[in-house]
Amino acid sequence: MYRKILITTDGSTVSSKTACAGVDFAEQMGADILALFVAPEYQYPIYVEIIPPSYPSEEEYMAAMQRAGQQHVQPIVDAAARRGLRCQGLTVFAESPALKIVEVAAREGCDLIFMGSHGRSGWGQLLLGSVTNKVLSHSRIPVLVHRLIKEPAPSTA
């Protein structure tokens, strides 16, 4: 039914649990996976006249976020490989994660977006998370929203 599923992650424990469920779902469908981490774009400090020496350069920031993104998507890539599924990990930069998720899904030919009902901003919200809600509003392809029954214990890693 689905050939290529985009699974989002923000690196949180909740997102990791959702990603595991996404890999399980992709296995049932026999689908390829695109694991996606959307990093915030570089922000110049606007509150000072000069950039402090300790503030990272744009190149340093981009490299650090690429490394963080790789760490966040790698468990999805590894889980897919253990199940014999093809999976690509991708880190992109955007001001609006939701719009970037929709854009990447369309550009990469995904036919389903699999994401959690809440991410980092999480469990204090009564309704869907803001990113999930925006993806649902803007996506032209199906979005499967996975909801955890209970909040996972924080990781000790």
TrEMBL record:
CDD domains: USP-like. Residues 1-145 form the UspA domain. Gene3D superfamilies: HUPs. InterPro entries: Rossmann-like_a/b/a_fold, Universal_stress_UspA, UspA. Belongs to the universal stress protein A family. This is Universal stress protein. The lineage of its organism: Bacteria, Pseudomonadati, Pseudomonadota, Betaproteobacteria, Burkholderiales.
